[in-house]
């Protein structure tokens, strides 16, 4: 059991995320930090009969909140609302994330750092460059949480296929051939975490043909890529912002995968008492800094070759792909997902890489002082 700190615990994502983490049996202490309301949220959660201790911390206590944390999750920042673009979000959230990451570097430099705050494509480079300047950067510790894209892909793929199946068998109400909770076998998502940088990959060719036959393939891709806009529009009547509950669920799923990796390490150490025999685990995609990983440069070249990009200035430093975890840290990227993608998916990868270059440079320029907000 480990200590997990949530920075931005009182926000629209932070509160339901903290609730879900309170239920996780691998967490011994849940440190909830925010500029306001954190103590109240922690007290509320502390009444739940699970064993994780909950403590709230305000601005002056961030050092205490982070001290001893094995995992730090950052959902802090301003959410999307109608009329707010991801560029607007960057201007609002880059400074927040830089400040929080600087504190992580100071108080728990070895923690696994999971960033939910948007726009992830640019804020992960902000975090990486900040940690580099603090002299504590470890590529395997920094992960952008893109799990919501996968959750949406699984949900939407099942919905489209079930609609088709229902029509085929006469439209029986409530008939479900495909279980949404098991669609991870058939679909993955790589790339980035906004618009056309999100690349859904359907593994089952029969499913792809079904989507194409029913003229739903492009619609499926668009819904996964712009699912966030769908939520913003639906909530616009009340001006209540973007996806919070689904993002909290996705965030908690990813934290759980990281914690399972830590837990496997500890259990294996008890059995054999040799850290060299730690077990690895492959998890769903996360947005990472490729050059710092053991096979990262190889993956950079593979992505560029796959997309037919010959421009040497395109570096492809950041990309979301399945990764291998050891002790909750990324050790390498599992590039096998790229081995059998279709020509259309290759074109999506190319578009994603080109857009990500701009997103990444924006984050790097902010830390280097070239961006004026």
UniProtKB/TrEMBL annotation:
NAD keyword on record: yes
Binding residues annotated for NAD(+), in chain numbering: 8-14, 34, 93, 116-118, 247
Active-site annotation: 193
Source organism, top-level taxon: Eukaryota
Keyword Ribonucleoprotein: no
Binding residue positions for substrate: 80, 86, 118, 152
Signal sequence coordinates: none
One Pfam assignment: Ldh_1_N
GO terms for cellular component: mitochondrion; peroxisomal matrix
Residue span(s) of domain Lactate/malate dehydrogenase C-terminal: 146-367
SUPFAM superfamilies: LDH C-terminal domain-like, NAD(P)-binding Rossmann-fold domains
NCBIfam families, per database record: MDH_euk_gproteo
Quaternary structure and partners: Homodimer.
The protein, known as: Malate dehydrogenase
Organism: Candida glabrata (Yeast)
Lineage start: Eukaryota, Fungi, Dikarya, Ascomycota, Saccharomycotina
